[in-house]
Design goal:
Elements: E1 6-9, E2 12-15, H1 23-28, E3 33-36, H2 50-59, E4 63-66, H3 76-88, E5 93-96, H4 101-112, E6 117-125, H5 129-141, E7 147-150, E8 155-157, H6 162-166, E9 176-178, E10 187-190, E11 194-198, E12 203-206, E13 211-219, E14 224-225, H7 233-236, E15 242-243, H8 251-260, E16 264-270, H9 280-295, E17 301-307, H10 319-328, E18 332-334, E19 337-343, E20 348-354, E21 360-366, E22 369-371, E23 376-377, H11 380-383, E24 409-411, H12 424-442, E25 455-462, E26 465-471, H13 490-506
Parallel strand pairs: 2-5, 3-4, 3-5, 6-7, 6-13, 7-10, 13-24, 15-22, 16-17, 16-22, 17-18
Antiparallel strand pairs: 1-2, 8-9, 11-12, 12-13, 14-23, 19-20, 20-21, 25-26
Helix pairs in contact: 3-4, 5-12
C-alpha cells in the first residue's frame, strides 16, 4: 500500500486515496471500519468508485460508509453525519480522501466543533512578482488592511535575469533573495499552499488543513512548468548537454555549455503558447550565437530553433528585425516542431512536426546541446477549481481583472486567462489595476481602472543590445519611450541588464508604481 496512514487518535486515522487491493492490508493493520470522503467524480477514470471500495471492504470483513466531501470543504451537516457514523461504526476507523486532509478536517469539525478559521480583509495567493507587488500596493493605499500572503516558498526569484545568466551576462546569486526580505511591512506571511477554494463561503483551504476567510481574494500563484510532459526530460536535465534557462539551478549550466562548446549541433525549443515570457526561448539562442560569433566558432556550430508555433514572434512588427539576427547567426528555424521526447545519454531528441495539411510526423534529431523550454499550464489547484476558465486558467475580465462570477476575487500575473504576454512587466501594470479596483470595490464604488494588455519583452538579440518589444492586447504597440521599438539599442540593454533589476527589488516590490500610466500618489 503506497498511502501513508496518519493516526489522529486511538480510534481514528486518515489516508490518501486507497485502491481495492489496499483493503486487505487495511484490515491486517487492525482497522474495523472504512469511510470514503472523496466524491466519485473527482479524480477521473483512475479513481476507484466507492462501490468498488465497498465490495472490497465487505470481502475483507470491514464496515464501509460513503460520506463524500467536496474539495472546497466540509459543511456542518457533513460534520454531524460523521459524528453519527463514529457512534455506530466499530473502531478503529480509517477515513480517506484524495490526500487525507479533508478527512482530518472533517474529523476535527465533528469532534471539536468548527475548526479555527483566520479572518483577513484580503488574502493574496502567491508571493511571486505579482503577489508581492499587489500586496505592497494595497498597503500603501490603506495601511490598516489586514493582508495575508499565502506562499510555501522560502526564496524569491528575479526570473527575467535568468536568460542573462545563461548568456554569461549576469550573476546567478543576484537573482534570488530570502522571501522574508520581500514580504511587505504590514502583511502576514502564511507559509503554506492553497489546496482548494470555497468561493461561495469566501474561504481558501490550506495544505496544513486550516482555513482563511477573506473579504477579497487576489489569485496570483504564477504558472506551472510541465517538465514531465516531455518524455525522458526530467531524467536528463542538468547533464548530457540538456539545459534550460527556465530553472534557477540550470541557467548557470546553460552558460557552462555555451562557453565550452567549439563545434557541434545545438537545438533550442519553444513549446505551444501560452508560456512565461514568449521571447525567452529565442533570447537564449541569440545570446549563445553572439558568444560563439565573438569566439570565432559560430561557423563550426549548427544552430536550430524548433518552435511549436508557425511564426517567430506573435507581434508581426518585430518579426523582420528578429529575422535579421536569425540570418546573421545562420540559425535554422523549424516551425510547428514540438519537442516531445529526450534521451540525454544518446543525445537524441524527438519532435512532433506538423505540416501544412495538419499531418504530424515524429522526427528524430541529434544534438550536442539542447536548450529546452517546457510546456506550461495553470497550477493544478487552479485548473481543478470552479474559478478556472475552459482552458484551466483563472477566469477574469480582461480589463478589470475581476472574476466574472465571484466579484470579490481578482487575479493578476501568469495565472490569468487573458491574452497578454505573461511577463513581470505585465504584472507591474496589472498590480495597479487590481489594487485600485479592489479598494474601489471595498468602498462600494465603480471599478476605475482598465488593463490594456501591456507586456514587455526585452529581446536580447546580442550581448549589449536589446530590441524592446512593448505591446498590449491585439499586438498593439505600447512603447514607453518615443523611439523606434524595432531597433536594437545599447540603451535598452542597460535598461534590461542594470536598471530593471534594481527597480524590481527597490521599486516594484516596494509598491512604487513608476511609469505605470495609472499610478497613484
Amino acid at each position: 500500500m503506497e498511502q501513508v496512514i496518519k493516526r489522529i487518535d486511538a480510534s481514528f486515522s486518515v489516508a490518501g486515496q486507497l485502491d481495492p487491493q489496499d483493503v486487505p492490508e487495511v484490515r491486517d493493520q487492525g482497522f474495523a471500519s472504512l469511510i470514503c470522503n472523496r466524491p466519485d467524480d473527482e479524480g477521473g477514470a483512475e479513481q476507484p468508485s466507492h462501490l468498488a471500495m465497498h465490495r472490497a471492504a465487505v470481502a475483507s470483513g470491514l464496515e464501509f460508509r460513503y460520506l463524500p466531501v467536496a474539495s472546497s470543504g466540509a459543511t456542518a451537516a457533513q460534520a454531524q453525519a460523521l459524528n453519527a457514523l463514529l457512534e455506530q461504526l466499530p473502531k478503529p476507523v480509517l477515513a480517506y480522501c484524495r490526500t487525507g486532509n479533508r478527512s482530518a478536517k472533517l474529523y476535527e469539525a465533528a469532534t471539536k466543533g468548527s475548526p479555527l478559521t483566520r479572518q483577513y480583509d484580503v488574502v493574496v495567493m502567491g508571493a511571486g512578482s505579482a503577489g508581492i507587488t499587489v500586496a505592497a500596493g494595497l498597503l500603501k493605499r490603506d495601511s490598516s488592511l489586514r493582508v495575508a500572503i499565502v506562499e510555501p516558498g522560502t526564496e524569491h526569484y528575479y526570473q527575467p535575469a535568468w536568460t542573462l545568466v545563461g548568456g554569461g551576462a549576469y550573476p546567478i546569486d543576484a537573482t534570488v533573495r530570502p522571501m522574508q526580505s520581500v514580504i511587505p511591512q504590514g502583511a502576514c506571511w502564511i507559509k503554506a499552499s492553497v489546496s482548494a477554494f470555497a468561493p461561495d463561503r469566501k474561504l481558501v483551504l490550506l495544505s496544513d488543513g486550516s482555513e482563511l476567510a477573506y473579504q477579497q481574494l487576489i489569485v496570483c500563484p504564477g504558472l506551472q512548468l510541465a517538465w514531465e510532459e516531455i518524455q525522458g526530460l526530467e531524467d536528463t536535465l542538468g547533464k548530457h548537454g540538456v539545459t534550460s534557462n527556465y530553472r534557477h539551478d540550470l541557467a548557470p549550466y546553460t552558460w557552462e555549455l555555451v562557453r565550452s562548446l567549439r563545434s557541434g549541433k545545438v537545438l533550442f525549443s519553444q513549446p505551444p503558447m501560452p508560456i512565461k515570457c514568449a521571447g525567452a526561448p529565442q533570447k537564449a539562442m541569440y545570446l549563445s550565437c553572439d558568444h560563439w560569433r565573438k569566439e570565432g566558432v559560430l561557423q563550426s556550430i549548427s544552430v536550430e530553433f524548433n518552435l511549436a508555433a508557425p511564426v517567430l514572434f506573435g507581434v508581426a512588427t518585430f518579426v523582420a528585425p528578429l529575422m535579421k539576427y536569425v540570418e546573421a547567426y545562420g540559425a535554422k528555424l523549424a516551425f510547428q516542431s514540438n519537442l516531445v521526447r529526450v534521451d540525454g545519454p544518446s543525445k537524441t531528441a524527438w519532435f512532433d512536426v506538423t505540416d501544412t495539411a495538419g499531418n504530424v510526423t515524429r522526427v528524430e534529431k541529434r544534438f550536442d546541446v539542447l536548450h529546452v523550454v517546457p510546456p506550461q499550464q495553470a497550477p493544478d489547484v487552479i485548473r481543478r477549481s470552479e474559478l478556472a476558465d475552459k482552458a484551466g486558467w483563472l477566469e477574469v475580465d480582461p480589463a478589470t481583472l475581476q472574476h466574472p462570477r465571484y466579484p470579490e476575487i481578482f487575479a493578476l500575473g501568469d495565472v490569468c486567462g487573458t491574452s497578454n504576454a505573461k511577463t513581470a512587466a505585465a504584472a507591474r501594470k496589472q498590480a495597479v489595476v487590481v489594487a485600485d479596483n479592489l479598494i474601489a470595490l471595498r468602498k462600494g464604488r465603480q471599478l476605475p481602472r482598465r488593463y490594456d494588455g501591456y507586456g514587455s519583452c526585452p529581446l536580447t538579440v546580442e550581448n549589449g543590445k536589446v530590441i524592446l518589444a512593448e505591446f498590449g492586447y491585439g499586438g498593439k504597440l505600447l512603447p514607453t519611450f518615443p523611439m523606434d521599438p524595432t531597433i536594437a539599442r545599447r540603451s535598452a540593454w542597460f535598461l534590461k541588464a542594470r536598471l530593471l533589476p534594481w527597480f524590481y527589488w527597490n521599486g516594484m516590490l516596494k509598491g512604487r508604481e513608476w511609469l505605470t500610466a495609472c499610478s497613484s500618489k
